[in-house]
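Escalation from tier 1.

The customer reports that the assembly of two entities below gives different structure tokens on two consecutive runs. Tier 1 could not reproduce it. I'm attaching the input and our single run for tier 2 to review.
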Amino acid sequence: MEKKDEADYKRAHSFALVRGSDMPDEMRAETIEMCVTALEKFASDNEKAAKMIKETMDKTFGSLWNVVIGESFGLDITHDVKGLLYFYFCTVAICIWKCS
Amino acid sequence: MPQKATSQKNKQVSPKVASQSIKTAPPKAVKPAVKKKDDENATDMGDVADEWMQGKTLLKPPDQLQLSEAELKEELTRVLTANNPHAPQNIVRYSFKERCYKPISNVDQLAIHFSLDGNMLHKDSDEARRQKARMSIAEEYVADSIAVDGSEDGRKENLGPDEEKGESEDKGTRGKKEQKLTNQFNFSERASQTHNNPLREKASQTEPPPRANFSAIANQWEIYDYYIVELQKQERTKEKQKAPPVKKEDEKSKKKQSTTESQSDDITKVSSKVVQILERMVNQNRFDDIAQDFKYFEDASDEFREQEGTLLPLWKFQYEKAKKLAVTALCWSQVYKDLFAVGHGSYDFTKQGHGMLLFYSLKNSTYPEFIFKTDSGIMCLDIHVGHPHLVAVGFYDGSVAVYNMKEMGTQPIHKSTAMTGKHTDPVWQVKWQKDDMDNHPNFFSVSSDGRVTSWTLVKNELMYMDVIKLSVDGVALEGQGDDQLPTMACGTSFDFHKQIDYLYIVGTAEGKIHKCSKAYSSQFLETYNAHNMAVDAVRWNHFHPKVFISCSADWTVKIWDQTINTPMFTFDLNAPVGDVAWAPYSSTVFAAVTTDGKVHVFDLNVNKYKAICEQLVVAKKKNKLTHVEFNPVHPIIIVGDDRGYVTCLKVSPNLRKMPKEKKGQDVPKGPEVEVAKMEKILSLLREPTSAVKK
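Tier 1 run:
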């Protein structure tokens, strides 16, 4: 039962749930899409996923982006206006911000 | 044996030999040598020695060699060589080459007798050069300083020393390769430095891009909770979508609209009271100096101006939508001392449009407190004294209306129509009366159609009653015969007596003023031939019961005693007079406005013939002033013009003079004083009236 529930909720939560964002809408949508791709590609390795996300963001939207992916962390950051995205995906929370 | 081998030469060099032999020969040999020497001396000097020697006997030391005479005569040869006697005769060295001892052929015969180390250096040697260099630096230094002096002084005298110094300099220059060669006889050095511009540092920094802070905590329970909430929301929206579509969607859209509207109207939801206060605060700050002037400024220069006074411009009220309309009526509220009403319309017969009724407060000079738009131009208005929310308005189209300020509507609560007895011509004046016996508010109106009508508000209806009909030849008498149609005079203004309720005066377009009573509807009490043109305004004096004032387009203002047919005072103001008003604080002060934009203030107590203040009030002379009103409490007047502006002016102290206090006497204040004042003036005129006025 527990395993089923686990599997259920893992499936149920397999979408990006934005918690906080400062970006314009299209930018946000694009970023979320790209992040989800990265996370699914490097499902086991958060570090590689973060690296990929950061590099893509830098290329598309300009430097300088910071990416944090984790299951349990606290944060207090200063970011450029219109450069923050904080969302959940399955069991991880991802925070991306721009600070040039 | 060698000693014996001396030749004859020895005789000449005998002393030398002897000495030589003394040195070299061993000591034992000395004596024989000595002897030999003596002998030689003896033989040399021959005869002389012999002779000398004969006197002596030879002493023979005991250890002297005993030689025979033959041995003594034996000649010995001696050879002198330059050989070093100490040098060995043969030196043998071991030769490693041949592995045997070999004699060296030449034996060095050099004998050093004396050596002394000197301290002289060859001038080309290293040490000498080094020393020279050291010396030359020091010398040069000295030489330069001396050379400068030397060149300045007589050259011939110092030629010698200069040369020396030049030489030393030359020597010095060899040490320093880069020294410039200067003319030693004629050289002066000069240098100068240009002015370097001061340096200035300039820096600028671009503005950093805007930043914001963000903080959050990410842990498993937060993530889980949030997902659950999101999923619930999604379920709810799905359920809603499944429900019947059309109507609910409409409702939703309406709700959405209302919510958006409410969001946007939040500002208006903010209490209008608050907004009003804020607006007033802002305006007060903006026009702070005007507010201060209004309250406290008293023109100090009035002391120097004997009798004249000035009007200090304060606020200027204008409403953009009323800009094209002329100010046709002004009225202060008796209860709210800072509130006044402005009626807008047009005096031009050809250009008739809509009208506006605006209420301004002195506390907010930029925007009216109340705005009412009317179809027809307003010609007059009056605010009820007892019920300050009731405003009576007379229109150009002949109708009258009553507005209730308490209600928020834009329409009057009562309006007269063709059925209900509206005038057929513009209503020139309306005035509230005391409530009638049934406590109904009522007001009077006068119009160009010759009727003076009384209107009463009875149970939400406006009832009218013609009080009097004006006509050219007196009151229109009914049944006057068909051949004579009564020509109606046009009433242009009226005023009710302050104390005597039923008494009122009416001014007409023909220039006549009729004194009437409410009781008598068929007859005038009196008629005055006042002016040559239409009477624009008539006003009773606030204090003196018998005095009233009238003004007209014939450029004159006249003051009347009601008992006398001719005016007491006549003032010619050089322009058509639009309006005249008594001051509420004095019985002898009044103000008149003319179409050339001037306000004339008179004080009969001060100057009976001339205005004590004549001031251009509006910016352009083309603005015609149409109305003037005194504030009942404050020393200000409002003046309206035909461009729609209302200007507020402060009356300077000279214009509101009170009678001088005599020492020790209490000045009785109150209307009696004013009455007495006026009476005094009039009495001056009355007695010699016949003499003066003719």
